[in-house]
């Protein structure tokens, strides 16, 4: 993620901004150009011209629900933006609680799509491919005893609406012994299953992936049950990025995929902010870094780690000073770094096809 700048007045803008606080310009995001643009009304009501690039645009139809600030070409047939075209089911918006939760979910989803687009990942929707990427955002139905489970099934990602309730999400995080559980984390993890299908299974890279993550052909349900019954092995941190990653090679891949996205996106923001870490007490330079490269374009996992570790030490220390949990409470062993390197190579086309 990065910062943006208003083309009218130079004010610093953030990804979700819809209005420049300095000049009051209406703002919209152009995903293909990766720019947040100031807009001027066009001749046709509801259309706009963008300061950032030529063309006439209109907002995604979900703008009326306060759930999107992305743009589509005004002359085109699409009513929904590149991200919202993947929504298969949204909650009943006549319930204001549903509406508030869905808005939070959409913020996380757009941030996830930012990364997908930056990495040039395949993003077919259900109109283009029966097994394309799609989302169901569903509310529990306690009157009939239905509890929605977040998960992935052949391109369809289901996200429980209750996950947008901060208190409920923290309760689930504690109950499941997770050090990290966020809406954006759900999108990144579940998308890992989808992109495993597209890039590994369908991309001719299955054997190479198995050499890194293990044999995914083992019984998935039995593996999960064993994980919940027995817990992770005692030495799991030497080989896995999280305890849940030990459950099955598919979960290991999805967890590692999610962490790769965490890392590149956070490092990009650090770069955009011009952050430099240089502790006075650090005589060896081990905790010093400057993010002077584009993490999304990098194909060197060691360069990412050399920047990431000092940054996490810094932000974790700041969090502790405020009495709140570490921002990144994970240990990246050499084995995990190697797995992250596989993900990096996969997203950049560096893993050869079998």
Provide an overview of this structure.
With 354 residues, the chain is of the alpha+beta class. The protein folds into 3 domains: 4-81, no CATH class; 83-180, no CATH class; 203-354, no CATH class. Helix content is 37%, strand content 13%. The protein is built from 8 helices and 13 strands. It has helices at 96-118, 166-175, 183-201, 206-213, 220-230, 249-272, 301-321, 334-347; strands at 4-5, 12-13, 26-30, 35-41, 48-50, 56-59, 71-73, 87-89, 134-138, 151-153, 156-160, 276-277, 289-290. A 5-stranded antiparallel sheet has the order 3-4-5-6-7, with no helix packed on it. A 4-stranded mixed sheet has the order 8-9-11-10, covered by helices on one side. Strand 1 (4-5) and strand 2 form a beta hairpin. Helix 6 (249-272) packs across helix 7. The longest helix is centred in the last third of the chain and has 24 residues, at 249-272. The model has no long low-confidence stretch (mean pLDDT 95).
């Amino acid at each position: 993620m990065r910062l943006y700048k208003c083309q009218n007045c130079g004010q610093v803008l953030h990804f979700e901004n819809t209005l420049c606080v300095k000049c009051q310009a209406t703002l919209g995001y152009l995903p293909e150009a990766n720019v947040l643009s100031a807009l001027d009304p066009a001749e046709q009501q509801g259309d706009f011209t963008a300061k950032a690039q030529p063309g006439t645009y209109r907002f995604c139809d979900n703008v009326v629900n306060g759930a999107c600030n992305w743009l589509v070409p005004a002359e085109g047939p699409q009513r929904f933006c590149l991200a919202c075209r993947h929504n298969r089911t949204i909650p009943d918006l006549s319930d204001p609680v549903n509406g508030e939760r869905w808005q939070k979910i959409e913020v996380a989803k757009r941030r996830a799509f930012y990364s997908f687009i930056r990495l040039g990942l395949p993003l077919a929707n259900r109109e283009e491919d029966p097994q394309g990427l799609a989302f169901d955002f569903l509310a529990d139905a306690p009157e009939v005893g239905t509890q929605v489970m977040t998960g992935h099934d052949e391109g369809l990602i289901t996200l429980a609406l209750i996950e947008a309730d901060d208190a409920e999400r923290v309760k689930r995080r504690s109950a499941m012994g997770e050090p990290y559980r966020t809406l954006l984390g759900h999108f990144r993890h579940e998308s890992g299953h989808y992109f495993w299908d597209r890039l590994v299974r369908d991309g001719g890279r299955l054997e190479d992936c198995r050499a890194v993550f293990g044999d995914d052909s083992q019984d998935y349900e039995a593996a999960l049950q064993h994980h919940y019954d027995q817990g992770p092995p005692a030495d799991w941190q030497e080989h896995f990025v999280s305890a849940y990653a030990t459950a099955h090679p598919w979960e290991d891949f999805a967890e590692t995929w999610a962490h790769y996205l965490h890392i590149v996106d956070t490092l990009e923001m650090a770069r955009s902010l011009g952050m430099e870490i240089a502790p006075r007490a650090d005589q060896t330079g081990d905790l010093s870094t400057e993010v002077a490269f584009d993490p999304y374009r990098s194909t060197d996992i060691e360069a990412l780690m050399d920047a990431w570790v000092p940054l996490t030490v810094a932000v974790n220390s700041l969090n502790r000073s405020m009495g709140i949990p570490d921002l990144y409470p994970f240990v990246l062993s050499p084995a995990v770094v190697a797995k992250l390197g596989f993900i990096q190579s996969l997203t950049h086309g560096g893993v050869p096809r079998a």
